[in-house]
Design a protein that fits this description.
Helix content: 25-40%
Strand order of the largest sheet: 8-7-6-9-10-11
CATH class of the largest domain: Alpha Beta
Radius of gyration: 21 Å
Length: about 350
């Protein structure tokens, strides 16, 4: 899910500013919300003005790994944003679809563009100055900095502002308030109408037993039938369910919640929730993924997250700040003030 970002909106906002350092930054996006949130979140944390470059690989390259791409920009469709000099001082990309383009920009810039890649690029790590995979990807190398989870755009300022804006809409909801972040089916996990109904019943029971208020939001993968199951089980007196209209209140939900529940399928959602420092529970789904299971096992071992067992407990932990950690390292290497 994650806070919805449109690259065009961010592009308009960021190109209107000028950095005192004079340094420039590009972020490479491939149209996927998760990738966009990661690269833009890191660029925002670094603090340089940045330009979003939307990339659309054409056939057959969009189906092939970057290791098979030619050392040109020929794989890009004409609908892609222009990729041409002057090259930026900092380049941030993520995922396999941007890796080949990032590597080619670095080659043409002759090392003058500090190139950062998030996630496993699936090509030689030497094509980049810095590679930032999540810990569970098991990528290692001299230019690698591991993150615990996914990088993102969630910050304390954004959640505070979102919570303040949301306050009039949720004044009727009792406390404690529980944000419920629902993902959806993917290649590893399943969230169908039946499973959604089971989770919704547990949430309804929680509201009855504790008197809590629920703040429920869905991802693009949730599906209409699953969403309907939640709406059928949860009444407006105890729950605000985002209807998909207007701006997603995701930041506001994270800002105003006392507890957070998130389905297990999304590393990004859990990473964002854990950046708040609030108690976070995982909601299991049928399915299996070795990498995601390893991620959750580490979080449980380190006391950051607990499986939801139908009750609410308070505990503390050091909030995850992978985005800030990586941004600080980039600023150090670029010689920017801390």
């Amino acid at each position: 899910m994650t806070a919805m970002t449109t690259a065009a909106t961010v592009k308009m906002a960021t190109m209107a500013t000028t950095a005192a350092t004079g340094k420039s930054c590009w972020v490479l996006c491939d149209g996927r919300i998760g990738i966009t949130n990661e690269v833009i979140g890191l660029a925002e944390a670094v603090g340089l003005p940045f330009e979003v470059k939307n990339l659309k690989p054409r056939a057959p390259w969009r189906w092939l790994p970057a290791a098979l791409w030619p050392r040109t920009f020929a794989p890009l469709d004409r609908q892609s944003d222009p990729i041409a000099p002057p090259w930026p001082d900092l380049l941030i990309g993520a995922g396999g679809r941007t890796a080949g383009v990032a590597a080619q920009i670095r080659r043409q810039a002759k090392g003058k563009t500090f190139t950062v890649h998030l996630q496993d690029p699936r090509i030689a790590l030497g094509n980049f100055d810095l590679v930032v995979p999540p810990w569970h990807d098991r990528v290692s190398g001299p230019n690698v900095i591991e993150s615990v989870g996914a990088l993102h755009r969630v910050t304390a300022d954004k959640t505070a502002a979102g919570g303040a804006a949301l306050a009039p809409r949720i004044a009727h909801l009792p406390r404690p308030r529980v944000a419920v972040l629902i993902g959806g089916s993917n290649g590893s996990y399943r969230l169908d109408e039946t499973e959604a109904g089971a989770i919704a019943s547990r949430l309804a029971a929680l509201a009855t037993q504790t008197g809590c208020g629920l703040l429920v939001t869905f991802s693009r993968r949730t599906g209409r039938k699953a969403e309907a199951a939640f709406r059928a089980a949860l009444g407006p007196a105890s729950a605000l369910i985002w209807d998909g209209e207007g701006e997603n209140p995701y930041f506001g939900f994270l800002g105003t919640a006392d507890f957070i529940l998130a389905t297990i399928d999304s590393v990004a959602m859990v990473s964002e929730a854990l950046s708040t420092g609030k108690p976070v529970y995982s909601l299991d789904l049928p399915g299996h993924n070795d990498r995601i299971n390893a991620f959750h096992a580490r979080l449980r071992k380190e006391g950051l997250i607990r499986p939801f067992a139908g009750r609410l407990e308070i505990w503390t932990y050091q909030p995850l700040n992978d985005t800030g950690m990586v941004a600080a390292e980039i600023r150090r290497r670029l010689g920017l003030a801390s």
